[in-house]
Amino acid sequence: TETKQLQLSPMVIEEPNLSHDHYTLKIEIPPTDKKEEREKRKNEIKNIRKLLKEVDNLYQKDLEEIPTIHFDKHLYTPLVVYDKHKEFIKSEPVKLNDGETEFVRKLRDHIKQNQVKDKEIFLLRNLSRIGVGFFQNSGFYPDFIMWIKENEKQTMVFIDPKGIRNTGNFNDEKIQLHKNIKDLEKEINKSNIKLESMILSVSEYKNVKKNFEVGKTKKEEFENNHILFMDDENLINKVFTCVCDMKNIYEGVE
């Protein structure tokens, strides 16, 4: 069942998703019998400690050494992210996984390349178990909250990059949230607030299709159920089109 405890309130620094004021990095040191790897890892730790003192770099650009993403539309920066070559670096809060990292990069690149007209866009990572959750039984915490703000109107989009290859059909409650969230929108009863949700599949369409219902589900049907595929070339444009009227959103587009 849908939780009834979701309330509309101003964003404050004490909000759980903003309450952590630092990351803790934990770096695994190889055993003593692997001397070369051990020394290499120690040198990486020295480099990271040096970088952490370079405030301008830390808060203004991506760092490969940790690694991090700087995205000025996220409500705090930097974000510690996934890199297959840096899996030995653990963090608290937990760093973004591969799919989450890809989404943030694509959103950032899209906004940089396309001047948005008359709208402000903000993103916030939604932390599991302490952020905004749905469903009292299973506890679903979408990975991100995105705000699309135009004057006094705003659309809040709960976005979850995840694998759906074994989901099998559209009845999954995480997918159905895009419909059920409208009940919460009615309860809030604010004409300037719109709620949306979306799944970004890290599984490719060709692989999902084989295991979904009878294997003949068209991509358009997934999109109608607010499921988009991460490998779509125009993914972010589809996100905006799906959740709100984004006609003429870009500067110079008539």
Topology (SSEs and partners):
Layout: E1 24-27, H1 35-52, H2 55-60, E2 68-69, E3 79-80, E4 89-92, H3 98-113, E5 120-125, E6 144-150, E7 153-162, H4 173-188, E8 193-201, H5 205-211, H6 219-224, E9 227-229, H7 235-243
Keywords:
2 domains, 7 helices, alpha/beta, globular, 254 residues, five-stranded mixed β-sheet, two-stranded antiparallel ribbon
Number of domains: 2
Characterize the overall form. Answer: globular
- For the record, give the distance between the C-alpha atoms at the N and C termini, rounded to a whole number: 43 Å
Give the oligomeric state: single chain
Number of helices: 7
Largest sheet: 5 strands, mixed
Would you kindly provide a written description of the structure presented here, covering whatever features stand out?
- This protein is an alpha/beta fold.
- It has two domains: 169 residues; 72 residues, no CATH class.
- Helix content is 31%, strand content 19%.
- It has seven helices and nine strands.
- A five-stranded mixed β-sheet has the order 5-6-7-8-9, with helices on both faces.
- It is globular.
Brief summary:
This protein has 254 residues and is an alpha/beta fold. It has helices at residues 35-52, 55-60, 98-113, 173-188, 205-211, 219-224, 235-243; strands at residues 24-27, 68-69, 79-80, 89-92, 120-125, 144-150, 153-162, 193-201, 227-229. It has 2 domains: 1-11 and 97-254; 21-92, no CATH class.
